[in-house]
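pinned: reference chain
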Amino acid sequence: MTPQQEHDRDSRDLKILRLLDERLSQQKVADACGVTRGPIAKLVRDIRNDEAENA
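pinned: its structure tokens
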């Protein structure tokens, strides 16, 4: 993955997290970001796994 691709992914992930924090549904976030719900679910799973490992 190129640095630009990583930057784009990180920017997208931050936007997803911001919208989820605003209590939008995963479907509304997906629609707003132009992605399917799959990347959103993976992001949420990864965060939960990290939290569980660091608890």
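why pinned: The CA atoms of residues 3 and 9 lie 10 Å apart. Helices lie at 3-21, 26-33, 37-53.
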